[in-house]
Design a protein that fits this description.
The chain is of the alpha/beta class and 291 residues long. The protein has nine helices and ten strands. The chain has an eight-stranded parallel β-sheet with strand order 1-10-7-6-5-4-3-2. It has a two-stranded antiparallel ribbon with strand order 8-9. The two termini are 25 Å apart.
Length: 291
Amino acid sequence: MIIGPHLSISGGYKKTVEQALSIGASTFQAFSRNPRGGAAAKIDEDDVSKAVKLMEEHSFGPILIHAPYTLNMAAAKPETYEFAKQCFGDDMRRMEKLPAHLYVFHPGSITTLPYEQGIEQIAQILKEQMIPDSETWVLLETMSGKGSEVGKNFEQLVDILNAVGNAPCRERIGVCIDTCHLFSAGYDIVNHFDEVLDRFDEKIGLNLLKAVHMNDSMNPFASFKDRHAKIGEGKIGFEVLAEIAANSRLQGLPFFLETPQEDISGYADEISRLSKFVEERQRAQKSIDKI
């Protein structure tokens, strides 16, 4: 199982890889820059080189870089839209130098704009700022549906993809599902996760599902609120999330924990419990296959 938590890269990528390995993780997620602002740390090429070597030595999975929360491509205010454009473009250029090829962002929040205009703004930035022939996959995140945010259902993500059209960047745009967000948005992943995957496959295509945010939810089903809980301490529950992690249709995908922890030992416990469940399920399946 490829799984890891959201970690700080303030000490450099090599140190963060070491930290992830120390808690049994095989990947991690990190912000591209200050999540509430626009500052980005200078890239240390020597540090990146050492991190890549360490990742190769330990069969480390793909790292996911998360855009800052302030990035809103669907913004009505020109200055907010311009910041999103500049920030995203800079992140795309930085990704070319980082030991990561997955980048996820919240599609945005439409306030006073017509829906179609907000979607077109998102598509326009993607078409203008994504780098041709890059290895980076840009992932649209499924959202909980609070306020006027975009991405509360699969259809809205399809609208973005359709607005991008046949632009070259379209081949490197995928999706990251978030278990808390799906549950909060009204997708019954507790009782009908396979049907949710069927719907995703029908609307978007499972081939475009590149990562999973593994989070429990503080709020009840279809609450349209975004409050993550520790694995097994929310309304979704450990058994459901473990079954999702073990789902054969998600095999090989990286899972990222964004649960509220006091320290990284909490992540170590979640990684251990989920990994053990997946390993036991896989062993059981192999035994059945031999019969």
